[in-house]
Amino acid sequence: MNGDLYENLRLELRRGCLIVAVLAQLREEQYGYTLRKALSDDGLEIDESTLYPLLRRLESQGLLASEWREENKRSKRFYHLSAEGEAILKQLLAEWQVINASINRMLAEN
After folding, report:
1. Which helix (H) or strand (E) holds 30?
2. Could you count the other beta carbons within 10 Å of the beta carbon of residue 54?
3. What is the spatial distance between Cα 25 and Cα 29, in angstroms, rounded to a whole number?
4. In the predicted model, what is the mean pLDDT of residues 7-25?
5. First vs last C-alpha separation in the chain
6. How would you label 12-51 residue by residue, b for 16+ Cβ within 10 Å and e otherwise?
7. How much is the pTM?
């Protein structure tokens, strides 16, 4: 039971963190594979089955823009932050700093 509870809470925590990480990475244009690799290189593994639906959702929310282009004779969808995405990322990062500082204070008190 404890293992299931931990796993559910871990996934919930990761979901929010992944959104911030994806938005942060897409300050520079990337396509899915390079984005996934960049996240992995920074220690955040993400499955394709999680990444691509997340990208579509963020785009439908107006936070990302994308376009199909051919590269090395393959068609690839390139993503980047929209102006609204940049504004939201800035707000989320400010909130992240407040939450992180609060948690660090709580942990230091114990």
Report:
1. strand 30-31
2. 16
3. 8
4. 94
5. 27
6. eeeeeebbebbbbbbeeebbbeebbebbeeeeeebeeeeb
7. 0.89
